[in-house]
Design goal:
By secondary structure, the chain is an alpha+beta fold. The chain has 2 domains: 224 residues, Porin (Beta Barrel); 132 residues, 2-Layer Sandwich (60s Ribosomal Protein L30, Chain: A). The chain has 8 helices and 12 strands. It has an 8-stranded antiparallel β-barrel with strand order 1-2-3-4-5-6-7-8. The longest helix is centred in the C-terminal third of the chain and has 22 residues. The radius of gyration is 30 Å and the shape is rod-shaped.
Length: 376
């Protein structure tokens, strides 16, 4: 049964990541990040839960390396060190107080785990590159190594009441948890992470055959997102290519002499970087030319037509959505930045690409404007 539940969660995560990724800009090299974490572990072992809560707040530290394959799903490899505290059974402590003392003993744990990271916020509310706060769910497993037990363990093991293997060992460990991630800037995040862990070891309840232990980790993570090599991006968003854009757009930066020609397209078109629907400084200036034309000719209305990239055998639904978002981005710039009356604008999409540049690099003309007069 438990394996069916794990499989369902995994398939749900994959399905959600595909859905979310369909409607965000392409990011060719993913999102790599590195982090350090510090916090506390709380033992939930059967003999520890009935003792002082503060006593079992043990410092814990982690380092990790992760990769987001989409805005909704990623993997994280983590290594951790924590100081665990546990205690013998109450019966042993009562029977021989001169041997067991207060019953507490400590040891250290090294952990290595692989986690699946599912971004719940991006799945249910869509992806936004600059969203300040997101919630994620994590699940996974790995191994746990115990070592450096208190010397008192060896004295205890002379008696049969509470045997503990002081040599340590290597054990499987699983975990689930949640994160609240705060975006500090383009490179850095601050996460608050609560993780529940379970392991099958030899250190609690051995006398009654129950080896399963639980502990909680409450951690503060500082996360650094690397730039990818080709696009220079830290996250899933449009590349900043202003210095690289100008020579590519030179053929499309002429100020054409526009005249009113109802039913025909303007000479001015808006290019977009392949796979994206963001305007930058250069392309926003092109939108300004269209705004000036509308102000000079108040009788003209425009149908803003969005176009996809070269389709080939790629996802048609993605490209239709891409064309729609490009038209909406241009309309929003005309209305919000250049104060054009929204009643003079309509948007539509065309499945066909416009004529590409003579030297096709990574920019394509993707939005054109069909002129209509108020009488048509």
């Amino acid at each position: 049964m438990k394996y069916n539940i794990i499989l369902f969660i995994f398939l749900f995560a994959i399905d959600g990541s595909v859905s979310a990724q369909s409607y965000v800009p392409k990011h060719k090299h993913g999102d790599w990040y590195f982090g350090v974490a510090g916090g506390f572990s709380q033992s939930l072992a059967e003999n520890a839960v009935n003792t002082d809560f503060i006593t079992h707040q043990i410092p814990s530290a982690n380092i990790f390396l992760g990769h987001n394959f989409t805005p909704a799903f990623g993997l994280r490899l983590m290594g951790g060190l924590n100081m665990q505290s546990s205690r013998c059974s109450k019966a042993a402590e009562t029977a021989m107080p001169d041997v067991y003392g207060n019953g507490r003993y400590s040891f250290r744990c090294l952990t290595g785990t692989l986690s699946g990271i599912v971004n719940i916020t991006n799945i249910f509310f869509g992806y936004e590159a600059d969203r300040p706060l997101t919630w994620t769910f994590l699940f996974g497993g790995g191994v746990l190594k115990t070592y450096n037990f208190d010397d008192k363990i060896y004295a205890w093991n002379q008696y049969p009441y509470y045997p503990v293997d002081g040599d340590g060992g290597l054990y499987p460990v699983g975990h689930i948890g949640t994160q609240c991630s705060v975006r500090l800037n383009e490179a850095w995040d601050l996460d608050i992470e609560l993780r529940a862990n379970a392991t099958d070891n030899k250190y609690n309840g051995v006398s009654n055959g129950n080896h399963l232990d639980f502990y909680l980790d409450l951690m503060v993570n500082f996360v650094y997102h690397f730039k990818n090599g080709k696009q220079g991006l830290r996250r899933f968003r449009a590349p900043k290519r202003v210095a690289y854009v100008d020579p590519i757009l030179r053929d499309h930066s002429n100020d054409y002499l526009e005249t009113v020609r109802p039913g025909e397209s303007m000479y001015t078109q808006i290019p977009f970087y392949a796979g994206f629907y963001y305007l930058n400084e250069v392309t926003t200036k092109r939108v300004g030319i269209v705004a000036s034309f509308l102000k000079a000719h108040p009788e003209v209305r425009l149908n803003i037509v969005g176009h996809p990239d070269v389709l080939g055998d790629e996802d048609m639904e993605f490209h239709r959505h891409l064309a729609q978002k490009r038209a909406e981005a241009v309309r929003d710039a005309l209305v919000n930045r250049f104060k054009v009356d929204t009643d003079r604008l309509t948007i539509s999409i065309d499945d066909h690409t416009l004529q590409p540049y003579k030297t096709v690099r990574e920019w394509v003309p993707a939005v054109d404007f069909v002129m209509e007069t108020s009488g048509k």
